[in-house]
Amino acid sequence: MRKPIRWLLSIMLIAAMFLTACGSSGSSGGETSEENVLNVFNWSEYLPESVLQQFEEETGIDVNYTTFSSNEEMYAKLSSGNLGYDIAVPTLFFIEMLVKEDMLEKINTDNIPNLKNLNPDFTGTFADPKDEYSVPYLWGSVVIAVNKDLVKKDVKGFADLFDPEFENSLVMPEDNRASIGAMLGILGYPINSTDEKQIEEAGELLKDLTPNIKAFNGDNPKGLLITGEAKAGIMYSAEAALAKRENPNIEIIFPEEPSFLWQDNFVIPKGAPHKENAEKFIDFILRPEISKQISEAYPYGNPNAEAVKLLSEDIQQEMSIPEEFFDRAEYARDVGEATVLYDRIWTEVKQ
């Protein structure tokens, strides 16, 4: 839901893990034992560098940080066999899939006392009802952002983005469920539809929108909006809020059609080589003062109730979502065998 914080290519991560296992020197130049390493796999623009540095300084654990730009990319890498990741941050409906396929370790909650800081509204989710495999990190919604300096049309929903005014000027998420889901919402279909006919129809509608789409961008969609290369876009809520920080003329619109809510959680992939370090990291992130820093940098919804209390009114306003929007929004869910259809349509749209 995001530029790499500390970009290391996967091959570099694997090499680093190999050297660590052999007792080679870590990033600090000194001896680094296997126990003093943590390999994090996360969205880009989703965790401040300062937080990673503070964790390293307090614990002596060296963090190797790699990023992904979509749940599908994350899932593909975890499915190919654990490459040494100790923590990943998937969205709930992908956690559903990972749990069903026995790809996650159970979390030892005794090692995470700061779980007490979480708002219970974000625990016991449909993806992990007993909170055995995941810990809430951040949440948000899919919204529309419009540069009012460049757009005359009064935009109220996804359907308005078909206007010729937006030719070659929309940025869209690198997310097939969000993009196809917006089309399902326009058509009045469930945004978690598993009906082949409905999904195909939504796919055709998305293809009709392609003349207006400048880019699919999962790393930094707000950048195109801030610079004026894109007039508007469908994006995650904090991306829109950060764009507005840079350019007050950017308007955030909660679409009149049904839209997605999402929640990203920490998980520990099966076979993680440094599981206790992963649990130590999760507990560190759940400290109110640390979680506060994250929300100040990336104002997504924060499930950490104690951290929210520490945030300024301005940040809390950036994070807020209108209550009436929740009435027409849904969390993305695992669509089972229909996933193949969504993937095929997505490939066709991006050709």
From TrEMBL:
<dbReference type="InterPro" id="IPR001188">
    <property type="entry name" value="Sperm_putr-bd"/>
</dbReference>
<keyword id="KW-0574">Periplasm</keyword>
<keyword id="KW-0732">Signal</keyword>
<dbReference type="InterPro" id="IPR006059">
    <property type="entry name" value="SBP"/>
</dbReference>
<protein>
    <submittedName>
        <fullName>PotD/PotF family extracellular solute-binding protein</fullName>
    </submittedName>
</protein>
<dbReference type="Pfam" id="PF13416">
    <property type="entry name" value="SBP_bac_8"/>
</dbReference>
<keyword id="KW-0813">Transport</keyword>
<feature type="signal peptide">
    <location>
        <begin position="1"/>
        <end position="23"/>
    </location>
</feature>
